């Protein structure tokens, strides 16, 4: 049909394609031809499932097919298949090429299939391989992409994951014709005129169930035992220079074939007969069920997890509060030293692994960073002050969403990298790109259980391994412990990255209060509203999705959190009891005035001379402190506490420390004499400069600490002689952003990009495959070449008829290209046309068009 002329401001005509599954006029000869016959939504699904094919956008479908067959892209695609689909690909790798669907069905189910789910799930697996361009061809000619076959097919260097060895034809390729004739004679077959027919006859014998059974019935018992040890792989064994009689019987009849000096192999056809036609010992057509489920009370799970969520907030606050005035130094290579991590763990009353998690969580949330000074230290960021002002539920969602999206993980801390260097908390090399996807998938699986339901970690790991088998499965060879491979145990050890990430996720979710007792909480379910849907490739959630999920989670968590209190209970033993969480101003002031002695359902604060002095250093007076305690205590201020405040206030500031090297100033000469006479002052090296002034040979902060250790209460003073007021929030880093997650491969494209990419590929393919009329003087390289007059006449005629033409075009950079355009207007030395290759209206200078040719059959 002829294309109608496009309007000036329209997006251009759309190419109509046959619906999915519609029979084609002739079978496709290549993957590119099959892709050419697919509908646009099928191509979009391919690009969505394999986004690496989209960067850069392929010029046409031939280029797309070529890129889909590259090794790196194929490995990435195979890694995202579920176990049964991968098993089907493995079966196709050992099947004849092309493989009829019936043959594949027999390889998966065997001669007498026992599991009806295999036949039910096989079409889905084949469709998944076809959708991802790993398999192509009609049902009677299924073809595995060559790169996939190379990755999965058996060889001596890379045994097949199925446990099958090379075929008879492959194993006898280098064998002498005389030896081949000896084998078929020992097997009871007539002699042939050439090795090819001899190998074909031997293969036919091994594939004939009845004749093969009759041959094995005559085998010695020891020979049958040898075959039984090799049948499920690995198919290789060793023999001596003088094999035993039962081994010689197998070698003479080709049931074992030489694989190298001193080694033999079991041919694929023999193994398939012994396996009753099955390629796998244990096909797994459906995902393992998440069972048995342990039931817990949903209310108890949510309430207990809310308590843990509040504990997580206080832990992060305690961590950053301890680093406000002097955080740990940053290692030269980045991160925390082992000693600082131990100190942090002791301060938080947690294990070192837990301390690493809390520091990484604060870093991921943008609350912690390095200050960038000469002596670089870790300190809270300005965002930490904003975070403290938020309600508790919003502070928790800030931490939880940062945890879900972060690629950094604390699990590897303390381990070794590839160069045997210890991995430090907050240091480099802690990014694990699959971490966000694994976290989301673990929580999504828990969300499929009834509320309050939980399963064992091994059950969850079994499901995850079925959905994404370990990486060794698609790089050649059968990794030890992989379920479904020959001779493998039913469960692999936790040595693959995704399994370790899943176990870390379960632990961290409990610490954060997302789960409790292994069950997902109600507010945890609300966090899963972003990050992809079931059956679609996972993608990182957008900012809007994360914000909406955080709002839902906060709304569900808020009623479960305790209401902050505005009072404490003062006791005569110089302690104060907070029967619950305190409001922010009260907690901050009390944290300066007293030391936390114990935590739990109630927090116990203890007043000491040091804590009272700390409050006085912050600018409070004794009257201020007594008034504060009177206003916020449900019990009267005890007399011992009042005396303690008065006594420390009376001595506070009596000594003044400033900077010369450093000095001590006091109106009481006797007190200065007492300091000079005290042996404990020797490390300070004091020297009297005047009756009321002592000089010391240490910095002012060391002098302050030394005098306080001696029992005095000195105060620091400025150069003007005023008392220096110190506050806990004195040190903050410059504004810092949270670390950017490191993605695993290219991102999943959005629908707009997919639509544009499919249109561009279609247009480029049409431009490269459309049949053209011969030009008067065809140019070398295939570009049309016409005179300026002929070019102008042809383009003007196309405007009148609405026809599409093929042009050669050279842009301003001198790059030549070919395009299919539908001219709309010609004036002023320019042609305005709809460009099918770019799928938009464009204007081209006529002097840059090298030539023009009409299409033979304009079917754009």
Overall description:
- The protein has 860 residues and is an alpha+beta fold.
- It folds into six domains: 31-152, no CATH class; 168-266, no CATH class; 294-478 and 497-560, no CATH class; 569-651, no CATH class; 656-716; 770-854, SH3 type barrels (Roll), CATH 2.30.30.100.
- It contains 33 helices and 25 strands.
- It has a five-stranded mixed beta sheet, with helices on one face. The protein has a five-stranded antiparallel beta sheet with strand order 24-23-22-21-25. Strands 12-13-15-14 form a four-stranded antiparallel beta sheet.
- Helix 17 packs across helix 18.
- The longest helix is centred in the middle third of the chain and has 25 residues, at 298-322.
- Residues 1-24, 473-493, 530-535 and 775-781 have low confidence and may be disordered.
- Residues 568-690 form the Helicase XPB/Ssl2 N-terminal domain.
- Residues 1-17 have a biased composition (Basic and acidic residues).
- Keywords: DNA-binding.
- GO terms for molecular function: DNA binding.
- It holds the Pfam family WYL.
Q: What's a concise summary of this model?
A:
It comes from Streptomyces eurocidicus (Streptoverticillium eurocidicus). The chain is an alpha+beta fold.
| Mean pLDDT figure | 84
Count of domains: 6
- Give the fraction of residues assigned to helices: 40-55%
Strand content: 5-15%
Oligomer: single chain
How many runs of DSSP E, i.e. beta strands?
25
Q: Tally the helices: what do you get?
A: 33
Distance between the termini: 8 Å
Tell me the major beta sheet. Answer: 5 strands, mixed
User: Which word captures the global form?
Assistant: extended
Radius of gyration from the alpha-carbon trace, in angstroms:
39 Å
Structural class: alpha+beta
**Low-pLDDT windows of residues:** 1-24, 473-493, 530-535, 775-781
Q: Can you list the strand order of the major beta sheet?
A: 18-19-17-16-20
